[in-house]
Amino acid sequence: MEPISTELLAGAVTRLRRAGASYADARHVDDERESLAWVATGEDERVERLFRAGSEGFGVRALVDGAWGFAARRGRDERALEAALEEALAVARAAAQVMRGQRIELADEEPHRGHYATPVVEDPFAVSVDDKLSMLREACTALRRTAGEAARTASAHIHLRRQRKTLATSDGTAVTQTLVYAGCGMKLVVQRGDEVQHRSYPMELDGGVQAGGFEVIRGFDLVGNAPRIAEEAVQLLTAPNCPAGERTVVLDTPQLALQIHESCGHPTEADRAFGEELSLAGGSFLEPGRLGRFRYGSQKVNLTADALQPGGLGTFGWDDEGVAARKTPLIARGHFVGYLTSRETAARLSLPRSGGCVRAEQWNRFPIVRMVNVSLEPDERGPTRDELIADTDDGILFGSNRSWSIDDLRLNFQFGCEIAWEIKGGKLTRVLRNPLYTGSTPRFWAGCDTVGGPRDYKLWGFVSCGKGDPMQLMAVGHGCAPARFRNVAVGSAT
Amino acid sequence: MNERELLDALERALPADGEVELSAMGGRQRMLRFASSRFTQTGDVEDVVVQARAIEGGRLGAARTNRVDAASLRDLVAEARAMAKAQRGPAGAPGFADGRAPEPKVAPSFDEATARADAAGVARLVEPAFAACGRTNLTAAGLVAAGVTTWAVATTAGARRLFSSTSARLDIIASDESSAARVGRYATAIGVVAADATALADDAVSRAERGRAPIDLPPGAYDVILEPPAVAELLEWLALTSLGARTLEDGSSCLAGRRGQTITGDVTISDDALSGADGCPTLPFDAEGTPKQRVVSIDAGRVGDGVHDRASAARFHTASTGHAGSVGDELGEGGPSALHLHVQPGADTIEDLLGRVERGLWVSRFHYVNGLLDTRRALMTGMTRDGLFLVENGRLGRGVRNLRWTESLLEAFQRLGGLSRARQVVAAGLSGQVLVCPTVLVRGWRFTGTSR
Description:
Chain A is α+β, with helices and mostly antiparallel strands. Chain A has helices spanning 6-18, 78-99, 129-147, 214-220, 222-238, 253-265, 270-273, 343-348, 385-390, 441-446; strands at residues 21-41, 44-64, 67-74, 113-117, 151-169, 174-192, 195-201, 208-211, 245-251, 303-306, 327-332, 335-336, 358-359, 368-369, 374-376, 394-398, 401-406, 412-417, 420-424, 427-432, 435-440, 448-451, 458-467, 472-480, 483-492. Chain B is globular and about 70 Å long.
């Protein structure tokens, strides 16, 4: 379908300004998804999920008398846009009546024009459904064949999404974007007696997802990785529990990506720091008074928010309030130096510009501060994964995530993993099951003594980052190489 | 488009031949979110999701849209059929509901005033919170919302279902730098919430004042009184990890292979979308048009039944219980879901429960619970949040800094010290569930870390 013209939206924004809005933006989003899943249990194997989904509509935001009004209407015709416009004004006025005279300021942003598109090699929606299902079926068969009698259930999935976005703001921005991502994953549940374990690849949480086309899915090679994953799952059935104690820990990239997400990405969201997420996601220990004054981690730790990084789920041309994508340091040599910001929070922090981190899950959601690609910068002279293990005399390597929990200020966390390996004398030795580690964010990152180099750097993606109320699920990216942490409390979940 | 027109549109889009199901969920929601005693996010959203499922050669395909004009619905059906034909895998998809099973009678869940509430009327519900917090050097955060949702199902096999319900919600968090306390009210009528708005604001402020200058307690085992929102978050995870047919099938559910066995204490947990007990919203059918049944999953501690949709029921050689996942629910795409969990009340008053605690903790709410640690034991971890108080000699005391816990729900419920007679309807944040829970006393809850 033809994209909605920026002129149509620009006209709506002009009408909102004439009606009294000090700022306004209007978006149209045409959202396509495809989801497939295959499951095999016992004698039964089946297509568990197979659908295509489309959703489109207008989201209009107006700042009137110091209050935000947002309204959304489905469809693509002018009547829907007009209805959204009228209701956005009504909501803003209703809010302003109760707020009585409070004001919202926005950081300046120059007007932008243009189009951005995710680079795609192979259109994922054009690959036949049967080819996709065959790939998933083959992966499940390989998992079960390797696991033998221990296999309980094998599953594999593919998930695709394409969003066509049009945005106009009252500052004169008029841009269009086509964002595409693709992802896949598989999981094997094994059982012996009452012991049930599982392994997944590339990770259980959303699988492996990146911006791009079907080449992303081919790159993960589910079938080729199935035997290794199945062997590890079977090993878990008889492996000892992870022993409790204070240990040196190496986090492999799937788990480190989640560690970054929870303990750096969320606490650097400026709206959380201002208390705007108290009703759901919580606050942040990185209070505004700590900006530029707080030691977050060791000097090995450099974390950035980069919406320009190729392949990232947080990569785009402009955010949902028309701010051009950019790269912002969050933690520099261990010091807290930056937030993920909107135009509103940037103004509250007296920053000259927004960091360009405002996104809405859909046309029907209010845009809020979200992570882009929040990544741990590799140490240019850092070791590979193998070299890091070889350099560790006594420690534990944690694999991909099984459970995650962190407090409402993003300080106290506990992460469980599917699998871990003991490291002795620089070598991986026995498999450990039900491993978990726990800590407090600044103390944990202060213990980071080695960050891996660029050769094993991997950009991961999560598509179900929950924030906002009503809940918005956002696609975000996290890049990292394996890293080592000293004096971490570890143990077993059981 | 009104609810009748929605069902008519689905009906007209059904093809004359073949097996097709059209299921829709849509409505209008008005919400305002606030923090630091000002509105930060607002919204008036109107949307609908229509899902077409088609069976071709015994294989199932599906497609979804939010366009409900006749041409778009025809295209949707064609796309679902194309998806079904495009596969060569195993056949055997069960057919669609024929509508012969009578729709159960449910308590009404629709309130005209809530459906018509405008933005100004919804926003005004927050005024008492702003005023009460302003008087006490606290700030108000939270959410106020009101809306209407319609479900409609039409199948070529003959099913026709239509139901609408309304909901209203006010959550208030009163906080300052050292304390935060949350209270909330969820109902099917905005008038119920409006009547409570001032009392809720006063309660939030009173709790926040009590929580100022919290003390530290070391980790360890403490008797806890869990308020309904805390109980609800535990059950939300129990539903996700153990009550749906998918987890029973793969063996990861704590119920799997244990039917009839006693796995926990004297607690009864059921999924009930019919009774409207304690003001719980009702829903007579699921997204497949199957009449909903009350399903008892844990009966006085013994393992009962999981919940099923038509596909899982066929594999388990039983009948669907009417628990197909919601149309368009991304998190619910894992299969049948228990979305209306009720915990059977006890006989105690809150004072009874307090009176049984010599030294313990009052837990208002949990944060970031994760129930994936060991699903066979329902082992979970999480933090306390928004109101943790010391209980000494049966009296509620001062605030306590938040603690991490790691606990098996099954084992914890074996140490029950009582359940309240009064229950509260709680809307879960993660999954769209609505739960009805009492306040619960548990002995020896295992706290494993502090928030510093």
